Amino acid sequence: MCPLTVTIPIEEEFIQLSKLSLPKKSKEEESFVIEAVNIFKSFNTSTLSNQESLEQVVNSLVLRINQAWNTNARKVNITRHSKKWWNKDCNQALNKYRVSRNLEDWKSFKRTVKSTKRSFFDTKIQKVTNKSRRPWELMSWVNK
Question: Among 44, 53, 102, 109, which one is least packed by beta carbons within 10 Å?
Fold first, then answer.
């Protein structure tokens, strides 16, 4: 019998620890949208006559939109709690436990997380089922 040896090359993985984000319905999001609309309104497209001029306009547009994004977005650290269901109540309960280290505060935090998750996913399920009434669409949403 001969032992089998396999070498698997593993590349170093880049793990992103932060990202720029615009919280929904925030002042930052509103400012970004207003700036983006104004950028589009201010562009002069009457001089577009060839591919080069189109590329210049598009590159300028991209640059200005990126500047607006960088101005209004804020840096958010990605943590294990970076979930769509995570909210201010979860933060407050977790911070309360971290300060007190009390078992009752830990239990309260776990109850808050559980009820927040249940509420979030029940709402998502209701949206999908009321919109289409097709179970496979619900399954495709879960897999995303």
Answer: 44
